[in-house]
């Protein structure tokens, strides 16, 4: 499987990287369509910031924020949309509109979301290694084995719920539930997770574990992100969730052309 690019659309006023930049219907729709033109395979829309020290929106508040945007773009682009939500009721409303992917950063903490996925056979499901919402620097994974065991137990649960593993994707929670050293270890050794036999999804874009090495400026980090991305492409990563789709699409196209010529 060639690496797929997931563009990030933070439909929030308080995202850690670009909060507020696309927090209007007009700018959000333009950015969504721009990422598709730049080469995104899918765009992940999030209305509820789960970064450190954030106050989470309720399910109703989250849906109130995102519903108008989804009603505008889903009729045409539903198969290219991912909704970042851990609320079962919002996942169900989204797939009813034709949204193709649910990105659950709660890692099925609320198992009712699995019932939504089980009965909607067209939907893909991303579950993330997650210990706390919002993210908490005091509650993190201690080893890659801990992340692997979490994934394995969740996959067993998903199968018990009747969800085909062909619709399931795993995100090890880089920079969210891992410290900088473990984040680097995970992305450097993705083959460790390949035995889960589901696609691997990495959301490392502009995160602080990269900043700790080069001290990039606010709203920076695309060079560092791309460097890590290309190393993961070499390892066969399945999905890369990134802010700057344009540079990733261009770089990966060259990378694939060079690899195929060998």
TrEMBL record:
Residue span(s) of domain Pterin-binding? 3-253
EC number(s) stated in the UniProt entry for this protein: 2.5.1.15
InterPro entries, A to Z = DHP_synth-like (IPR045031), DHP_synth_dom (IPR006390), Dihydropteroate_synth-like_sf (IPR011005), Pterin-binding_dom (IPR000489)
Whether Nucleus counts among this entry's keywords is: no
One GO term (biological process): folic acid biosynthetic process
Reaction(s) catalysed by this chain's protein = (7,8-dihydropterin-6-yl)methyl diphosphate + 4-aminobenzoate = 7,8-dihydropteroate + diphosphate
Q: What is this protein called?
A: Dihydropteroate synthase
Recorded source organism is Midichloria mitochondrii (strain IricVA)
Q: Which gene encodes it?
A: folP
